[in-house]
């Protein structure tokens, strides 16, 4: 009996030291399909300047201190600058065209929820019209972080960016906006957009050119790559008469530039899961599932890689360690003929509603893994549900769990080359003999048989 307990303690100790998840032989430890974005916002960011506070429930504005907060967010943004932080108490705010002044590379301006409190910026549609929550359209609007907010029901774009500097959007939930959830339209050489750890869904019910996350680099090639990582993006749609977008993630260039797209979960979007048009991209360790449900959408694929003209502006696109699962009748991958020699397709797992018979890839692709990913829990949703005059996919998001089950062909099947060192949940990679494919790294498991004496 002592030997049994000693072995049990030894195994548990090893599991704790190496970050393993321990499972009993008669059960699986519960896991959420998503991450808790509030976890990232528990503590205020380190700062060098002044903290300003906003509380929409006060009867009159004060001086912006914690004991006498401003009543509106824009009042705080009018005075906050480099190194300052704007903390917003919980509540619903009916503000639009919010314009922050910006910070510097050493001293960012932070706009965040008070730790643990829910802040909703509500555009009010369909009862009344506000076009967007944030309007960041100048080069000196730079080094701005938007953290931990919910942004919903705006007539146009949730966060509207154009010709700005460096902006980071993190830990936000952005949903039910008429056009894109987050959009950059036109850039300058200093523009860099970092979109990380957000949940973006049900956008695009009205105005066209809408995707969940849509970075359009037209105007100028940027000096630094844009970064889209660790986001959960689902059920976005182009509900306008155009039906040209509706992608989960789109990097739409024209002016040149590059983008890192890694560790994202993009599923059940009306257009493509990931769409890159005329740009350089590194697309690594994403999970894409049954996108392209809008039959009117011209560009509906799991991944679409396009080019303008002869594709001269594209130098290289790398697709590696992704899981691409296509719904019936939707191509897994489509690549413009002019850039096929510039695309690296390596260590990707592909599957479809039709099994292996539905796995059809362009002729230039010669290396892939065709197998069922064996996720923890998925559904096959096809029915539609009306929202603000458009039709979105009817789905229960809580029924999805895209972690790989034990025995999945995606475990340890990825390449280490340029692979991110963590996954969507910030779990370290690799944990096994190799890197897993897809957005989630499977924790090492130690199985303990039930011992009776």
Overview of this structure, please?
By secondary structure, this protein is mainly beta. The protein has one domain: Pectate Lyase C-like. The protein is 5% helix and 30% strand. The chain is built from two helices and 36 strands. It has helices at 2-17, 73-79, and strands at 21-24, 51-54, 85-88, 91-93, 109-113, 119-122, 134-136, 144-147, 150-152, 159-161, 166-170, 173-175, 182-185, 192-196, 199-201, 213-216, 226-229, 232-234, 249-252, 258-262, 265-267, 274-277, 280-284, 287-289, 303-306, 317-320, 323-326, 333-335, 343-346, 349-352, 369-370, 375-377, 384-387, 390-393, 401-404, 445-448. An eleven-stranded parallel β-sheet has the order 2-3-5-8-11-14-17-20-23-26-29, with helices on one face. An eleven-stranded parallel β-sheet has the order 4-6-9-12-15-18-21-24-27-30-31, with no helix packed on it. An eight-stranded parallel β-sheet has the order 7-10-13-16-19-22-25-28, with no helix packed on it. The longest helix is centred in the N-terminal third of the chain and has 16 residues, at 2-17.
Task: Give a quick rundown of the structure.
The protein is mainly beta. The protein contains two helices and 36 strands.
Write the layout of secondary structure elements.
Blueprint: H1 2-17, E1 21-24, E2 51-54, H2 73-79, E3 85-88, E4 91-93, E5 109-113, E6 119-122, E7 134-136, E8 144-147, E9 150-152, E10 159-161, E11 166-170, E12 173-175, E13 182-185, E14 192-196, E15 199-201, E16 213-216, E17 226-229, E18 232-234, E19 249-252, E20 258-262, E21 265-267, E22 274-277, E23 280-284, E24 287-289, E25 303-306, E26 317-320, E27 323-326, E28 333-335, E29 343-346, E30 349-352, E31 369-370, E32 375-377, E33 384-387, E34 390-393, E35 401-404, E36 445-448
Parallel strand pairs: 1-36, 2-3, 3-5, 4-6, 5-8, 6-9, 7-10, 8-11, 9-12, 10-13, 11-14, 12-15, 13-16, 14-17, 15-18, 16-19, 17-20, 18-21, 19-22, 20-23, 21-24, 22-25, 23-26, 24-27, 25-28, 26-29, 27-30, 30-31
Antiparallel strand pairs: 32-35, 33-34
């Amino acid at each position: 009996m002592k030997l049994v307990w000693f072995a049990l303690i030894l195994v548990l100790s090893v599991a704790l030291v190496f970050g393993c998840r321990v499972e009993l032989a008669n059960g699986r430890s519960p896991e959420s399909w998503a991450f808790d974005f509030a976890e990232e916002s528990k503590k205020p960011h380190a700062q060098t300047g002044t903290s300003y506070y906003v509380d929409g429930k006060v009867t009159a504005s004060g001086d912006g201190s914690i004991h006498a907060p401003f009543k509106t967010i824009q009042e705080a943004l009018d005075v906050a600058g480099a190194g300052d932080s704007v903390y917003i108490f919980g509540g619903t705010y009916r503000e639009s065209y919010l314009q922050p002044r910006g910070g510097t590379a050493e001293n960012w301006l932070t706009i965040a929820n008070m730790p643990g409190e829910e802040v909703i910026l509500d555009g009010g549609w369909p009862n009344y019209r506000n076009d967007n929550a944030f309007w960041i359209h100048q080069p000196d609007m730079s080094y701005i972080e938007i953290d931990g907010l919910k942004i919903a029901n705006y007539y146009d774009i949730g966060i509207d960016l154009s010709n700005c500097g460096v902006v980071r959007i993190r830990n936000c939930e952005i949903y039910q906006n008429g056009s894109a959830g987050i959009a950059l339209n036109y850039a300058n050489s200093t523009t860099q957009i970092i979109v990380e750890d957000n949940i973006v869904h049900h956008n695009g019910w009205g105005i066209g050119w809408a995707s969940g996350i849509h970075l359009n680099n037209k105007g100028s090639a940027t000096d630094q790559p844009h970064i889209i990582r660790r986001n959960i993006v689902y059920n976005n749609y182009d509900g306008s008469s155009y039906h040209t977008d509706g992608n989960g993630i789109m990097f739409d260039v024209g002016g040149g530039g590059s983008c890192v797209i890694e560790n994202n979960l993009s599923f059940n979007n009306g257009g493509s899961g990931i769409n890159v048009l005329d740009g350089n991209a590194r697309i690594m360790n994403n999970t894409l599932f049954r996108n392209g449900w809008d039959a009117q959408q011209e560009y509906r694929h799991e991944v679409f890689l396009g080019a303008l003209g002869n594709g001269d502006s594209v130098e290289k696109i790398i697709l590696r360690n992704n899981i691409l699962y296509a719904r019936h009748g939707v191509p897994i991958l489509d690549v413009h003929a002019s850039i096929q020699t510039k695309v690296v397709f390596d260590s990707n797992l592909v599957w479809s509603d039709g099994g292996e018979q539905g796995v059809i890839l362009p002729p230039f692709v010669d290396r892939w893994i065709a197998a069922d990913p064996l996720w923890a829990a998925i559904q096959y949703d096809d029915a539609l549900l009306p929202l603000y005059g458009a039709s979105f996919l009817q789905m229960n998001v809580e029924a999805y769990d895209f972690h790989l089950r034990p025995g999945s062909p995606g475990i340890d099947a990825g390449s280490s080359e340029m692979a991110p060192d963590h996954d969507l949940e910030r779990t370290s990679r690799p944990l096994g003999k190799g890197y897993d494919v897809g957005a989630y790294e499977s924790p090492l498991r130690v199985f303990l048989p039930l011992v009776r004496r």
